[in-house]
Write a structure and sequence with these properties.
By secondary structure, the protein is mainly beta. 6% of the residues lie in helices and 46% in strands.
Length: 166
């Protein structure tokens, strides 16, 4: 059979070693990540098969201001924390997270691995808040900048008016 660069078979996915990732703000947010989208060359959307062990979180509680995310639960059970509320979730459940709407995370409080299909946009720039940590991150072409939300000062820019070019 001819190899197709845009197709991952179930056997291909099962044989992917994945990468263990720990969130930089939360040492309990540890997951095994298999990047399906990267494997087929997707650059504008992230598609990941994620495994979260019992007692672990999928990520730090956060909200993206510009990127949308969604999670389909393939197996296992846990608790979704969405906009400050907790919801029991399990295989077959879907979580859609429009940009700027709700902070979220998933906790595996079950007894078996929590298997997720996680998808999200990959915009060149994004801003995300970590409400439990009082932090905001700015992702841009030069990297990531993490700041304390308390240190953010609102400004009102003064733009020149027409004819003020003297």
């Amino acid at each position: 059979m001819k190899h197709c660069p845009w197709l991952l078979t179930a056997a291909d996915i099962a044989s992917m070693p994945g990468k263990v990732k720990t969130h930089f703000l939360n040492p309990n947010a540890v997951r095994l990540n298999r990047s399906l989208g990267d494997a087929v060359g997707l650059r504008r959307i992230g598609v990941h098969r994620v495994t979260v062990a019992p007692g672990r979180e999928a990520t730090e509680y956060h909200m993206h201001w510009h990127e949308e995310e969604c999670v389909y639960i393939l197996a296992g059970s846990g608790t979704a924390r969405i906009d400050g509320e907790r919801y029991a979730v399990g295989a077959g459940d879907f979580i859609g997270l429009p940009a700027g709407q709700a902070a979220h995370t998933l906790v595996n409080d079950g007894e078996e691995d929590l298997e997720l299909l996680v998808m999200g946009q990959r915009l060149e720039q994004d801003v995300a808040d970590y409400p439990d940590r009082g932090k905001r991150i700015y992702r841009h072409a030069d990297g990531w900048d993490l700041v304390d939300r308390e240190a953010i000062e609102p400004v009102t820019p003064t733009l020149p008016k027409a004819g003020d070019d003297r």
